[in-house]
Design brief:
Chain lengths: ~130, ~575
C-alpha cells in the first residue's frame, strides 16, 4: 500500500517537472526564434536603409550634375553662341518703345511712398536689411 | 532513456548558457578577435559649398567625378592587358603605352589611370566590363560661367582648398566638415546597418551668396573686352558699386583666367587689379582735394584762381595743364581738370589738412574689403613730403591708390559725404538654411559735410557737360557726375609720356545717385586721355547697367520731385 502510494506520488512529480521543463524550453525556443526573426527583420530593414542611403547619395550627385549642366546651358557665352547660330540679334528696347504704366494720383507709387533715398548711413552705420 | 535525455538536454542547456554568457558578457579579447576583420571605419565625404550671385545663379559648385583605377593582378595575359589598355586609352584619350606600363606591374593591385573623369565617361567604361578596371568616387570644383567674375570667385585646388578670391577668404565655411562612420561589415564586405556604432554626420560646406550681379558683370566684361581690343590696352579694370550701401555689383579685370583650368593660367592674369594694383590716379584724385577745401571753407565754388595759362613754376619745377586756361573758378577747375588750379586750392589747405582729408576719404590704407590681396596704396605722411608734394599730390601724383579706394571716395561724395565700407559677400548660409554671416552696409566715416557733398555732386556733373573733360561719359536720359583722370606712368625711373593710365570715375543718376562706376585703362594706344578712352567705356557700361538694374531716368526722378503722378518703370 505504502509502495503503491509512493509510486503514484513519484509519477506525478516527474510528469510535472518534465512538463514545466518543456514549457520553459518551448518558451526559450520561442524567445530565440523571435530574436532570430527580429534580428533578420532588422538586418533586412538595415540593408534597405543602406540602399536608400546609397540611392540618396547617387541622387544628390545627379542633382549636382544637372545643376552644373543647367548653369552651363544658361551661361552668357552659350546663349550668345545659340543666338549667333540662329541669326538672332538682341537689343535693348528703344526708350520710345517702352510702355510705362502710370499710376493714378490716389495710389502713390512705390517710389513716392518710400523714403526719398536709401540712406543706410543715417541709422548708425548698420542697416537692418 | 530518461536519464540519457536529461544528459543530452543538460549538455544543450550548458551550450545555450555559454552562448548567452558570450553574448551578454563578452570578453574584450574575444570581441577584438572576432571583430578585427569586420570593423569598418569610413570617412563620409563632404561637399564644398556653392558660390552664388545676387539672383542665385551658381558661380561655383562641386561636381561628382570618378577616378579610374586598375588592378593589374586581375588582367591575366598579355592579350587581355593589351585590349584593356587600348580601350582605356581610346575612351580617356591617353597614351596606350603608358596604360600598358601600369598594367605590367604584377605586384601592385592599385594603379591610378586617370583622376577626375566625368560620370558619363566612367559609365561608358563600366559598360565595357574591362577586367581589373574599377572606379572611385571623387569630385572636382566646377565654375559653370568660366572666366566670368573669376577674380572675385577665385579658385579651389584639387585638394579642395581655396587659392584665391572668395574661395580663399571663406575657405573654412565653404569646406564643411567630413563625417565619420564606424560599423561592421559581413563576409561579402557589405555594411551591417544594425551594427553601426559611431556615426558623425558630415556637414556640407555653406553656400556663399554674393552681392555680385552676374548680368552686370557680363555687361562690364563685354565692354572691357571691347575696350582692350579697340584701344590696344595692356590691361583694363572696372568696378560697379551701389552708392548708398557699398555693395559691389561687378568687379572685373582683364586679362582674365578660367578657374576651371587655373593650373595653366598666366599668373599675371590672376591678379585682381581692382583691389591689388595700385597706380597714380591722376586727375580723378582732384575730387578729394577740392572737396576738402570746400568743406574747410578755404575756397568757395565761385572763387577765381589764376591758372597761369597752363604753365606754373612752383619751387623751381614747372607744372603743366593739359588744357591751358587763364582764370578759372573752383567749379571750372573741376570741369576743365586744371592741375595748376588744384595745386593752388591745395595750398589754401596746407599739407596737414590735405593729408588728413585724403586719409579720411580712405586713401593710404585698406578699405577692409572682403577679398584677399587688397592693397592699401601709398600715401606718405606730410612730414615726409617734399616742397613739391603739395602741388603734385592734389592732382594725383606721388600717391598710389586702388580703383576700389577711388570709387569708394567718389561714392562717398555721391552718398552725401558718408563713406561706406565696400563689400561683396552678401550672406553665408549653411545647408539647413541658417545664416552664418551677413554682410551689412557699414559707414566707416564722414569726411565731408552733406552740403559740401551735394555741392561736389553738382560740380562733378559739370565735368560731363559741354566744355567739360568728360562729355563722352554722358548716358542718354541720365545726368552723370564724374571725373576723368590721365596719369603718365613712371617707367624705368622717369615719367614716360608714352605710357599712361586713363580713367574715369562717375555716378548716376546725379539727381539721386544709385551706382558708381570706375573704369581704368592701362597703356591705351594711340589716344590716352581719360576723357577719350575711359569715359566712353563708362558710358557704354552705364547705359546698359541702368537698364539692367531698372534705375529710373533723370526725367522720371525730376517728374517725381516736381510732384507729378510719377511714372515708374
Amino acid at each position: 500500500m505504502m509502495k503503491a502510494r509512493r509510486n503514484r506520488k513519484n509519477f506525478s512529480h516527474e510528469t510535472a517537472v518534465s512538463a514545466r521543463f518543456f514549457l520553459l524550453l518551448g518558451g526559450a525556443m520561442l524567445i530565440a526564434f523571435s530574436y532570430l526573426w527580429l534580428s533578420r527583420r532588422c538586418g533586412m530593414l538595415g540593408s534597405r536603409i543602406s540602399q536608400f542611403e546609397e540611392q540618396k547619395v547617387e541622387l544628390v550627385k545627379k542633382v549636382k550634375l544637372e545643376r552644373s549642366r543647367w548653369e552651363s546651358a544658361k551661361a552668357f557665352d552659350q546663349i550668345e553662341r545659340l543666338l549667333q547660330r540662329h541669326h538672332l540679334v538682341m537689343t535693348w528696347p528703344d526708350e520710345r518703345n517702352i510702355v510705362r504704366i502710370r499710376r493714378t494720383v490716389e495710389e502713390p507709387s512705390a517710389m513716392e511712398a518710400a523714403p526719398s533715398r536709401r540712406q543706410f548711413a543715417r541709422v548708425g552705420g548698420i542697416a537692418n536689411d | 532513456m530518461v536519464l540519457a535525455l536529461i544528459v543530452v538536454l543538460a549538455l544543450w542547456m550548458l551550450l545555450a548558457a555559454r552562448l548567452v554568457y558570450l553574448h551578454a558578457f563578452p570578453s574584450p579579447k574575444l570581441v577584438a578577435d572576432s571583430q578585427g576583420g569586420h570593423i569598418i571605419k569610413r570617412e563620409l565625404p563632404v561637399s564644398r559649398g556653392r558660390i552664388l550671385d545676387v539672383h542665385g545663379s551658381i558661380l561655383a559648385l562641386d561636381l561628382p567625378m570618378k577616378n579610374v583605377i586598375v588592378d593589374p593582378t586581375l588582367t591575366t595575359n598579355d592579350q587581355q592587358k593589351y585590349a584593356v589598355s587600348m580601350q582605356l586609352a581610346q575612351t580617356l584619350n591617353l597614351d596606350p603605352a603608358q596604360i600598358l606600363w601600369r598594367l605590367e606591374r604584377p605586384h601592385s593591385r592599385y594603379q591610378v589611370i586617370q583622376k577626375f573623369v566625368s560620370v558619363e565617361t566612367s559609365t561608358n567604361l563600366a559598360g565595357m566590363k574591362l577586367p581589373g578596371v574599377f572606379f572611385e568616387d571623387s569630385s572636382t570644383r566646377r565654375y559653370p560661367h568660366g572666366a566670368l567674375a573669376c577674380h572675385i570667385i577665385g579658385f579651389a585646388n584639387l585638394e579642395g582648398v581655396g587659392g584665391a578670391g572668395v574661395e580663399q577668404r571663406l575657405n573654412d565655411l565653404l569646406q564643411g566638415r567630413p563625417g565619420l562612420r564606424i560599423g561592421e561589415q559581413d563576409g561579402k564586405h557589405r555594411e551591417l546597418y544594425n551594427r553601426r556604432g559611431t556615426e558623425i554626420e558630415p556637414q556640407d560646406g555653406a553656400d556663399v551668396h554674393l552681392t555680385l550681379d552676374l548680368n552686370v558683370q557680363y555687361l562690364v566684361e563685354q565692354a572691357l573686352d571691347e575696350a582692350m581690343r579697340v584701344r590696344q590696352a595692356r590691361r583694363v579694370w572696372c568696378l560697379v558699386e551701389r552708392v548708398h550701401t557699398g555693395e559691389i555689383l561687378a568687379m572685373a579685370s582683364l586679362p582674365t583666367f578660367d578657374p576651371n583650368a587655373y593650373r595653366t593660367a598666366d599668373t599675371n592674369a590672376m591678379k585682381n587689379l581692382v583691389i591689388s594694383h595700385t597706380y597714380e590716379p591722376g586727375s580723378t584724385f582732384k575730387l578729394a582735394t577740392v572737396a576738402a577745401a570746400l568743406n574747410e571753407g578755404t575756397v568757395t565754388q565761385d572763387q577765381i584762381f589764376d591758372c597761369e595759362n597752363g604753365k606754373w613754376f612752383f619751387h623751381g619745377k614747372i607744372l603743366h595743364d593739359y588744357h591751358p586756361a587763364g582764370r578759372l573758378s573752383v567749379a571750372d577747375i573741376i570741369k576743365k581738370s586744371s592741375n595748376i588750379g588744384a595745386a593752388k586750392i591745395a595750398l589754401t589747405l596746407g599739407e596737414e589738412r590735405l593729408e588728413n582729408y585724403i586719409r579720411a576719404f580712405g586713401f593710404g590704407h585698406r578699405t577692409g574689403f572682403d577679398l584677399p590681396g587688397e592693397e592699401g596704396g601709398i600715401l606718405a605722411p606730410h612730414a615726409r613730403w617734399s616742397d613739391l608734394s603739395i602741388s603734385r599730390i592734389p592732382m594725383g601724383h606721388e600717391v598710389a591708390v586702388t580703383a576700389l579706394q577711388l570709387l569708394n571716395a567718389l561714392c562717398c561724395i555721391a552718398n552725401d559725404g558718408h563713406l561706406m565700407r565696400p563689400f561683396v559677400i552678401s550672406h553665408v548660409e549653411d545647408v539647413k538654411g541658417r545664416t552664418l554671416r551677413r554682410g551689412v552696409p557699414v559707414e566707416v566715416g564722414q569726411p565731408i559735410r552733406e552740403d559740401t557733398a551735394r555741392l561736389m555732386q553738382k560740380l562733378l556733373v559739370r565735368a560731363t557737360e559741354p566744355g567739360g573733360t568728360a562729355t563722352k561719359a554722358r548716358v542718354p536720359g541720365y545726368t552723370v557726375g564724374g571725373k576723368t583722370g590721365t596719369a603718365v606712368k613712371f617707367v624705368n625711373g622717369t615719367y614716360d609720356a608714352r605710357y599712361n593710365v586713363a580713367s574715369f570715375a562717375g555716378f548716376l543718376p546725379a539727381e539721386r545717385p544709385e551706382i558708381g562706376i570706375m573704369v581704368v585703362v592701362d597703356e591705351p594706344q594711340p589716344l590716352h586721355t581719360g576723357g577719350l578712352i575711359a569715359a566712353p567705356v563708362f558710358s557704354q557700361i552705364a547705359s546698359n547697367v541702368v537698364r539692367c538694374l531698372q534705375i529710373p531716368s533723370s526725367a522720371t526722378l525730376l517728374a517725381g520731385a516736381a510732384g507729378s503722378t510719377g511714372g515708374v518703370p
